[in-house]
Design a protein that fits this description.
The protein is of the alpha/beta class. It has helices at residues 25-33, 67-82, 98-108, 137-143, 160-169, 218-227, 249-269, and strands at 5-10, 54-59, 87-92, 113-117, 149-155, 172-175, 191-196, 232-238. The protein has one domain: Arginase, Chain A (3-Layer(aba) Sandwich), CATH 3.40.800.10.
């Protein structure tokens, strides 16, 4: 039987506003995953080295510097994976890729809740005139009225426009300054989780384009991912920028998160262990 969990690299960073480089991330995350300094066990005890658990699909071939064409290719590819009842974890790329990935999921699932872990709300109507910006994917998702619920964790850069957008779309937001109020999250519908590496404090993950001090620890992020009540059916890990990394520290963090995400999806959908 073919593995029911797929991993796909989405090396697209043309919608980055400040610094490009995240398109180089997927192969370096894979390299870190198989580093001789670590192993393929998740914290919950699942050995990802076992056959039949997951399969790497490699990186999607994109259309170059044309965002709309890239998004069409991403959505079509993702939807083709999902229609065969496969679960998908995507490796960005910048955060703009979450829009076509989630759009494909929402074509398959009747209703989804979205857990978004990030330093930034990514709710700009547009940024620098670009409605497909990596600062705008959740505005696109929510204005389409397709996600049942959007919960954001780790936010610490909320300006007036994005606050208004959050109120407009009914976003549930747990800012870092209020994180002590974050009790056990619970979701009634299947959950898609989007993880921006810059949700972490730069001390834990320096390999990001936008340094935003005061963020989550790696431990807090993993506990959030493994601790919420609900069924995880898909995820993305985005915005790792190797240009800013230090001794591949952030690549190892991204690989760690990949292991935990695969293990959570496996437990929630395929086989409890």
């Amino acid at each position: 039987m073919k593995p029911a969990i797929k991993v796909l690299g989405v090396p697209d960073d043309i919608n980055s506003s400040f610094m490009r480089g995240s398109s180089a991330a997927p192969p370096l995350i894979r390299e870190a995953l198989y580093s001789a300094s670590s192993n393929l066990f998740s914290e919950s005890g699942l050995n990802l080295d076992q056959k039949g658990i997951w399969e790497d699909l490699g990186d999607i071939e994109l259309a170059g510097e044309v965002a709309e064409e890239n998004f069409k290719k991403i959505k079509t590819f993702v939807k083709d994976v999902l229609v065969s009842n496969q679960k998908l974890v995507s490796l960005g790329g910048d955060h703009s890729v979450s829009w076509p990935i989630l759009d494909a999921h929402l074509d398959i699932w009747d209703a989804l809740d979205v857990l978004h872990i990030d330093a930034h709300p990514d709710l700009y109507d547009s940024l620098l005139g670009n409605k497909l910006s990596h600062a705008s994917p959740f505005a696109r998702i929510m204005e389409a009225g397709r996600a049942s619920r959007l919960v954001q964790v780790g936010i610490r850069t909320l300006n007036k426009h994005q606050r208004e957008q959050a109120e407009k779309f009914g976003v549930e937001m747990y800012q870092m300054k209020d994180l002590t109020k974050l009790s056990s999250l619970s979701f009634s519908k299947p959950v898609y989780c989007s993880i921006d590496i810059d949700a972490l404090d730069p001390a834990y993950a320096p390999g990001v384009s936008h340094f935003e001090p005061g963020g989550l620890s790696t431990r807090q992020l993993i506990d959030c991912l493994n601790g919420f009540k609900g069924r995880l059916i898909g995820a993305d890990i985005v915005e790792y920028n190797p240009k800013r990394d230090f001794h591949n520290l952030t690549a190892m963090v991204a690989a760690k998160l990949l292991k935990e995400v695969i293990a959570r999806i496996y437990r929630d959908n395929i086989k409890k262990y």
